[in-house]
């Protein structure tokens, strides 16, 4: 089971190492650097998840992945700008990146990021034999990368932006196999929330909801801006724009001048060779495009079974108080998400009880303040919003804001949990009314 978890991460590391060795003069030094970086990153992730907050470790790795993607965006934009005839002053960054030591440092950091993703997937409880097997597998893959790179066609090369595109694509593909490290789902949520907030504030400032000339049927079109599809398509645009810019940068490169050549056959030969070389330079960005698309698929259809129990009906006593025993048919202290449903006065409210990693119980609505109340599922140290596919770490459940479940006031005593049925119904009604108005009516 552990070996199967590591397969996609080792494949991504093998691809990164092969890309980094392409065209290098000191393959042995770079191969050792890649192996050392991968093992250091894996060790750091495994140790940190066991000694400090697991959320901190995952947040740090996600931040590194996001920074690599932002760097890729900047490099791809620069490459496209230069291919269009723009000139940039050669600064200290360009001079630094052209040195062999800089290439080794960049490879070490990229390999460490790949190893950190694998380490987070393993978790803190790793048997000692796994370390030996992992180190041996990584060493074999580095050796295989050296042998494969030496046998690749000489014409298979690309620009600096193309190499970076494939490296970042391997990292994001590897991260997509872990629901807590996947970047595409949080990206779509951020885009959706930004669009919702922007359009809402614009409408309010322009008094559009109260405008006499805005007919009701227009809200059907305006409401499209408040659906989750806005986040999905906006996320796709951001996700693929950098690699598309790399394609354009390579495709718009000027062909060599043949004006000085008198023979037509020689001119055609030079141009044909330049066109063939340019096509070969599109291979690596093409592979990056496939990997990014695979990461999107993994994000949309993760191979994770979510714990989503059927809500248990509960009632309130004469004083309107709901009581949930700590122990009984349902053990609230088992770390699982337990859902309940409460009905009163023709109104229904869903909520759940969960034991957080800090050892404290929390009571929350089965809904958040910004999405439709489709509910949550639990898996791999997180709860998932079924509407926007956002992952919320268990450490943050019980805290208000964003896509977190809306917390409900309660009192914890030795016998169990006590909460007000009236407060629960009012909180649910206010939350559902707000999210329904925002997502469906565009107000």
UniProtKB/TrEMBL annotation:
Q: Which residues cross the membrane?
A: 6-23, 30-48, 60-84, 130-149, 161-179, 230-252, 282-301
- Which top-rank group of organisms is this from? Bacteria
Q: Which Pfam family is one of this chain's hits?
A: FtrD-like
Residues annotated as domain Membrane iron-sulfur containing protein FtrD-like: 333-424
Q: Which residues form a coiled coil?
A: none
Keywords, in A-Z order: Membrane, Transmembrane, Transmembrane helix
What name does this protein carry?
Answer: Membrane iron-sulfur containing protein FtrD-like domain-containing protein
Which organism is this protein's natural source? Geomonas limicola
Lineage, uppermost ranks:
Bacteria, Pseudomonadati, Thermodesulfobacteriota, Desulfuromonadia, Geobacterales
């Amino acid at each position: 089971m552990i070996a199967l978890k590591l397969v996609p991460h080792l494949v991504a590391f093998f691809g990164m190492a092969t890309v980094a060795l392409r065209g290098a003069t000191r393959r042995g030094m770079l191969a050792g650097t890649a192996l050392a970086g991968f093992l250091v990153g894996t060790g750091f992730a495994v140790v940190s998840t066991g000694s400090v907050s697991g959320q901190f470790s995952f947040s740090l790795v996600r931040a590194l992945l996001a920074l690599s993607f932002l760097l890729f965006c900047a490099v791809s934009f620069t490459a496209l700008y230069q291919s269009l005839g723009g000139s940039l002053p050669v600064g200290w960054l360009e001079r630094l990146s052209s040195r062999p030591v800089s290439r080794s440092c960049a490879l070490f950091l990229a390999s460490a990021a790949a190893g950190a993703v694998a380490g987070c997937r393993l978790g803190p409880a790793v048997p000692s034999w796994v370390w030996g097997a992992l180190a041996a597998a990584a060493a074999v893959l580095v050796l295989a990368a050296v042998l494969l790179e030496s046998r690749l066609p000489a014409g298979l090369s690309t620009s600096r932006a193309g190499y970076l595109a494939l490296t970042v694509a391997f990292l994001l593909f590897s991260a997509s196999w872990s629901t807590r490290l996947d970047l595409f789902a949080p990206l779509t949520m951020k885009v959706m929330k930004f669009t919702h907030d922007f359009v809402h504030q614009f409408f309010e400032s322009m008094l559009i909801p109260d405008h006499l000339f805005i007919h009701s049927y227009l809200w059907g079109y305006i409401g499209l801006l408040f659906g989750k599809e806005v986040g999905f398509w906006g996320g796709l645009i951001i996700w693929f724009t950098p690699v598309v810019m790399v394609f354009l940068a390579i495709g718009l490169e000027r062909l060599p001048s043949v004006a000085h050549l008198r023979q037509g056959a020689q001119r055609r030969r030079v141009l044909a060779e330049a066109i063939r070389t340019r096509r070969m330079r599109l291979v690596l960005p093409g592979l990056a495009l496939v990997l990014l698309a695979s990461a999107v698929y993994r994000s949309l259809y993760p191979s994770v079974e979510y714990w989503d129990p059927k809500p248990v009906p509960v009632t309130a006593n004469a004083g309107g108080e709901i009581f949930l025993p700590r122990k009984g048919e349902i053990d609230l202290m088992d770390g699982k998400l337990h859902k309940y449903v409460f009905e009163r006065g023709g109104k229904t409210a869903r909520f759940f009880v969960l034991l957080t990693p800090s050892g404290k119980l929390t009571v929350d609505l089965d809904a958040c303040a910004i999405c439709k109340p489709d509910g949550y599922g639990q898996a791999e140290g997180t709860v998932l919003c079924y509407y926007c596919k956002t992952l919320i770490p268990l450490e943050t459940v019980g805290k208000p804001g964003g896509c977190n479940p809306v917390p409900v006031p309660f009192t914890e005593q030795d016998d169990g949990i006590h909460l007000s049925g009236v407060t629960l119904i009012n909180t649910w009604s206010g939350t559902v009314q707000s999210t329904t108005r925002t997502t469906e009516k565009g107000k």
